[in-house]
Amino acid sequence: MTDLDRLDPALRLAIAWQPAVSRGALADLFRLDGRLERAVARATEPMLAQIRLAWWRDRLKDVAAGHPQAEPLLSSLAATWGRHARFLTPLVDGWESRIEGLEASDPSAGFIAGRAGAMAGFAKVAGCEAEADAAATVGRRWALHGLMPAAEICDAIPLSAHLRGLAVLDGLAVRALRRKEPMLAGRTAALLAWRLGIFGR
Predict the structure, then answer these.
(1) For 151, which of 69, 96, 112, 144 is 20 to 30 Å away at the CA?
(2) Spatial distance between the Cα atoms of 192 and 153, rounded to a whole number of angstroms
(3) Are 119 and 143 in contact (CB under 8 A)?
(4) Low-confidence residues of the chain, pLDDT below 70?
(5) Could you give the count of Cα atoms lying within 13 Å of 196 in the half-sphere of its Cβ?
(6) pTM for the whole thing?
(7) Are 161 and 126 a contacting pair, CB within 8 Å?
(8) How buried is residue 172: exposed, middle or buried, by Cβ count under 10 Å (0-12/13-18/19+)?
């Protein structure tokens, strides 16, 4: 099973609707997030999880510096993110805040900030720096869906066609948070994704 096969179907839909020029970068962001999640989940001790995350943090620095990478995902990140790979470091920090047994003032806040920062970085990679704040909002809602808190959620935010995959993800996340269910649960979820993919709203 590949990293993409392991992704939530809603994330795979977001990738599919993202314009081809930046689709690989979004896919690699989600693939990295999945790797980091498994690194934390499989660690038997907090320190082991920290060591694994520190390895990824260092490798992202290497990718940003242009150093060749043999590991397949890192090699792909070098092609899709290049020097911008440094914008993915918050994702590592966010997962570190979720390690059980570590003292964190608010682990949920760290996790949310991590995904928000990574999504803002993706907007820059996609050539949409002016939409970095909006992309960060999508990242926060993506993280909130993973936490499923009791929170009031606003409407989906408008995004340009260059970030169509994020528009799909945001709409599905907002719907899921309101209903407190998986992003593709129910008959109308796929229709919503299709509408957002075509029209962006």
Answers:
(1) 96
(2) 17
(3) no
(4) 101-105, 149-153
(5) 30
(6) 0.92
(7) no
(8) buried
